[in-house]
């Protein structure tokens, strides 16, 4: 099978290049070491290839994204025989012709390759030296342009001269050379103007139609998706305003982003200090702030999560909690008994129940199975996962079981390890996010709209770009939101992220700012690669397990500070992050004509009746343009 | 033995290839994502996650000397997410209707999937749209099998007679063949649409099942 180098000429190669696998491994850090080369084949042209030399399973260096591996010294720890590990490290081949751009980061030691169709390839890490040689070799073989906006990004420009010619030639519309056709057209025009024109243009039209059919298709899909994602508004004036909430492209609205340092996790000693002798948790706000800034140490999760998820009240005593727990144990088993005592006969006549049960079964078998906690056949924890979900169906039969719930339960069960506590913590979590799972998807739709709104004030360029590329509905963030980033981060990171989010600090909907932060990191890549609807979707899907948690959290908090100190943040955005509306609730009642407020730095706010606000800015006159036909149904 | 080992695609000049949009539909858990991954990267992950939202992968495939780029769309099977899945049907060239041979319900739902597709893809001529009916998980033991090949064939006969194939994403049985078959079926229909007056009036597609969708023929065999 390994015939990579057999044919073809090797133009360049570099040993000891690590690949962090793109598969959804969340429990260990497995990197494969291999050789990255550029090879020219007679058939398919130049290719970038990476071929594994061995598989390293490295768990000691968990907290580093890239383990520095001395391939020789640790040979004993390799598991190249294992089928599963091997499968994570498949060879990679990218045709140079498909390359759209690449990004060089981490002291020039890391390279990410992106293809024209939106595929992002495994990130390559150069353990020995850096990627300079590789990049130089690449540049020797293709034309690249360094992005002006993102200095790490190198773009392979489309070849404009040949683009049209190639389309003509490859479509084989004209048997002759394209230039000849044009000349013939000109010559014949004198003799048979009408026929000549028609004939030639018929062919040309074919091309335009052909060229645009792919795009038309995307537009249609996006249009239908927009409709699906539109909230069923009752008021007519809200229609059409869902996505075009704010347009601030003309001017900077936000102050510079302040740094927001992360902190150490809550320690066992600290936690003890926050409890009085009866067990009341004191100074909860300070405590939450610590958790927001750094999470909690893993050993404390078992205890602290119960408070964060509302299972235990902060102001309860040890005694209260003991009593509460006893009660909750009883209540749980009562509900569990309800479904456990359904007889096979009953089940047969109870299709709603059967359906839910089958859904749970199917998903449980596919939830975090690479994690040791859930691995193997007949795993007992898997049974617990299933029992808790079935009991939740009895607890909330109307909602039932919806795909995604097993993802939310898994880390909780892993921390709690017992059925009852895991169940009640899960209930607490579901209370926070159950609108994601509603039948009409209204919760998801609303969040996508809110995200779009926050994006348009924070990253107006990107927001405008997305709109122009059929992506203003933010559907590509659907998975992020549905399971709160569960699929995007490693298991360790997701636990950290969730405990941070559960503090509800610094504002409501902070998770939306996290989305904005990720998009902030990606914005130049998306725009400079000129990605369209499908490529954007693909690029965002491919980000899974390649997002740095701490820097993203820090960025999201920075954005929060930017928004709170912005002078004229639109009310619709203010409300999402829990700020009082600027106009104040009174403005809506004062049925006054347009009033103009001058703010010292040249911003002009015009507020009208009926929540119609206009704010204008133009660089020349120093005005900010903000138009809004606000629908009042936002809350 | 062409090396299906690579994640990349195999042909130069991507713009030359005909791009075909393929959607894989079927109940949750029948193995849609596994089929796609087996086809695209020749890899099977027993413990892959269920799909949230939509995913797609591209893969080039060569059939009768012609290279096609398949853009394969995989969606979540659960009813709840229907409204977010159906927009992606628009503009499809090929539709794989998938069930698992060990899951009778998934087979019974084929008609629903077919109708959902026809409705939302806005296909005018349902009877001539290139569907392919795929019975996955053919590797399961005969005791676990709940849908026979004959039954599935019978269903196909009554529903526009699409080709039918039984596959296993797990052991790679018929997966490449399934996608090739789908493309051939597309190409065949396309040729007929392009040249309506050429050839005779016999519907060649109706002869296909005999030679092609012989699920019972290659069950348990390996891909070549
Ligand atoms: N025995 C066997 N199992 C398979 C095969 N293909 C898939 N599976 C298993 O069936 C389960 C479901 O496969 P998926 O590919 O996730 O199913 P899906 O149709 O994509 O499901 P949704 O994403 O929920 O719509 C997984 O646990 C796979 O391991 C197969 O050919 N044979
Ligand atoms: Mg799937």
UniProtKB/TrEMBL annotation, chain A:
Pfam families: PH_RBD (PF12068), RabGAP-TBC (PF00566). SMART domains: TBC. Keywords: Acetylation, Cytoplasm, GTPase activation, Phosphoprotein. One of its GO terms (cellular component) is cytoplasm. It is found in: Cytoplasm. Residues 295-505 form the Rab-GAP TBC domain. The keyword RNA-binding does not apply. One of its GO terms (molecular function) is GTPase activator activity. PANTHER family: LD27216P (PTHR22957:SF645), TBC1 DOMAIN FAMILY MEMBER GTPASE-ACTIVATING PROTEIN (PTHR22957). Acts as a GTPase activating protein for RAB7A. Does not act on RAB4, RAB5 or RAB6. Interacts with non-phosphorylated form of RAB8A; phosphorylation of RAB8A at 'Thr-72' disrupts this interaction. Interacts with ARMC12. This is TBC1 domain family member 15.
TrEMBL record, chain B:
It is a lipid-anchor. GO terms for molecular function: G protein activity; GTP binding. The keyword Secreted does not apply. Its cofactor is Mg(2+). It holds the Pfam family Ras. It comes from the Eukaryota. Gene3D superfamilies: P-loop containing nucleotide triphosphate hydrolases. It is found in: Cell membrane; Cytoplasmic vesicle, Phagosome membrane. Its main location: membrane. Belongs to the small GTPase superfamily. Rab family. PANTHER family: RAB FAMILY (PTHR47981), RE17845P (PTHR47981:SF1). This is small monomeric GTPase.
């Amino acid at each position: 099978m390994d015939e990579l180098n057999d044919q073809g000429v090797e133009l360049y190669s570099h040993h000891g290049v690590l690949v962090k696998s793109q598969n959804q491994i969340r429990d260990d850090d497995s990197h494969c070491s291999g050789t990255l080369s550029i090879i020219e084949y007679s058939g398919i042209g130049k290719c970038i290839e990476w071929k594994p030399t061995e598989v390293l399973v490295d768990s000691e260096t968990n907290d580093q994204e890239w383990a520095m591996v001395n391939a020789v010294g640790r040979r004993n720890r390799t598991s190249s025989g294992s089928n599963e590990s091997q499968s994570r490290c498949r060879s990679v081949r990218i045709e140079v012709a498909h390359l759209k751009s690449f990004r060089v980061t981490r002291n020039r030691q890391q390279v990410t390759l992106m293809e024209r169709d939106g595929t992002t390839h495994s990130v390559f890490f150069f353990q020995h030296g850096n990627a300079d040689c590789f990049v130089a070799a690449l540049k020797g073989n293709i034309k690249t342009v360094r992005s002006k906006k993102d200095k790490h990004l190198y773009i392979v420009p489309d070849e404009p001269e040949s683009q049209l010619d190639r389309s003509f030639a490859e479509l084989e519309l004209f048997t002759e050379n394209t230039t000849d056709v044009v000349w013939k057209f000109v010559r014949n025009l004198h003799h048979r103007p009408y026929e000549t024109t028609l004939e030639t243009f018929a062919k040309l039209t074919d091309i335009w139609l052909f060229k645009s059919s792919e795009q038309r298709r995307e537009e249609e899909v996006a249009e239908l998706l927009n409709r699906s994602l539109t909230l069923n508004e009752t008021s007519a004036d809200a229609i059409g305003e869902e996505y075009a909430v704010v347009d601030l492209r003309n001017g900077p609205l936000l102050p510079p982003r302040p740094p927001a340092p992360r902190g150490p996790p809550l320690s066992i000693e600290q936690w003890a200090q926050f409890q009085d002798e009866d067990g009341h948790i004191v100074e909860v706000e300070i405590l939450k702030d610590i958790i927001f800034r750094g999470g909690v140490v893993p050993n404390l999760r078992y205890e602290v999560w119960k408070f964060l998820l509302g299972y235990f009240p902060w102001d309860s005593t040890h005694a209260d909690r003991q009593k509460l727990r006893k009660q909750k144990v009883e209540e749980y088993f009562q509900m569990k008994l309800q479904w456990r005592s359904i007889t096979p006969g009953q089940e047969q006549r109870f299709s709603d129940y059967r359906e839910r049960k089958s859904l749970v079964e199917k998903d449980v078998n596919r939830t975090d199975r690479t994690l040791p906690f859930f691995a193997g056949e007949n795993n007992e924890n898997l049974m617990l996962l299933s029992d808790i979900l079935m009991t939740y169906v009895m607890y909330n039969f109307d909602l039932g079981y919806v795909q995604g719930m097993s993802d939310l339960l898994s880390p909780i069960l892993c921390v709690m390890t017992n059925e009852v506590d895991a169940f009640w913590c899960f209930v607490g979590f579901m209370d926070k996010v159950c609108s994601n799972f509603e039948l009409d998807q209204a919760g998801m739709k609303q969040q996508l709209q809110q995200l779009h709104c926050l994006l348009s004030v924070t990253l107006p360029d990107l927001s405008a770009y997305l709109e122009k590329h059929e992506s203003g509905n933010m559907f590509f963030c659907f998975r992020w939101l549905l399971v709160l980033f569960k699929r995007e981060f490693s298991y360790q990171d997701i636990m950290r992220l969730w405990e941070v989010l559960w503090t509800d600090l610094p504002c409501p909907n902070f998770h939306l700012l996290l989305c904005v932060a990720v998009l902030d990191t990606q914005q130049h890549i998306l725009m400079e690669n000129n990605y369209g609807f499908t490529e954007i979707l693909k690029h965002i899907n491919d980000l899974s397990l390649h997002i740095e948690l701490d820097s993203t959290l820090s960025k999201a908090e920075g954005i929060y500070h930017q928004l709170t100190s912005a002078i004229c943040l639109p009310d619709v955005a203010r409300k999402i992050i829990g700020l009082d509306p600027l106009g104040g609730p009174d403005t809506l009642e004062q049925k006054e004509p347009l009033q103009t407020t001058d703010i010292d730095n040249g911003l002009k706010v015009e507020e009208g009746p009926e929540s119609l606000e206009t704010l204008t800015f133009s660089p020349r006159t120093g005005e900010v343009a903000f138009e809004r036909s606000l629908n009042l149904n936002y809350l | 033995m062409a090396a299906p080992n690579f994640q990349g695609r195999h042909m130069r000049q991507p713009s030359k290839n005909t791009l075909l949009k393929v959607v894989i539909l079927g109940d949750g858990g029948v193995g849609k994502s596994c089929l796609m991954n087996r086809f695209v990267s020749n890899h099977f992950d027993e413990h892959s996650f269920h799909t949230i939202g939509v995913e797609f992968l591209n893969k080039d495939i060569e059939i009768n000397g012609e290279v096609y780029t398949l853009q394969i769309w995989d969606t979540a099977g659960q009813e709840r997410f229907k409204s977010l899945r159906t927009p992606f049907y628009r503009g499809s060239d090929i539709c794989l209707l998938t069930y698992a041979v060990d899951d009778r319900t998934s087979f019974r739902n084929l008609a629903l999937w077919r109708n959902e597709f026809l409705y939302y893809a806005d296909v005018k001529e349902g009877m001539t749209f290139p569907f392919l009916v795929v019975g996955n998980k053919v590797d399961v033991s005969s005791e676990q099998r709940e849908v026979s090949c004959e039954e599935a064939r019978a269903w196909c006969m009554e529903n526009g007679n699409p080709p039918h194939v039984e596959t296993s994403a797990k052991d790679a049985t018929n997966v490449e063949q399934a996608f090739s078959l789908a493309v051939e079926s597309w190409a065949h229909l396309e040729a007929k649409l392009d040249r309506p007056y050429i050839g005779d009036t016999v519907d060649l597609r109706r002869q296909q099942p005999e030679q092609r969708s012989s699920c019972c023929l290659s069950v348990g065999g390996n891909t070549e």
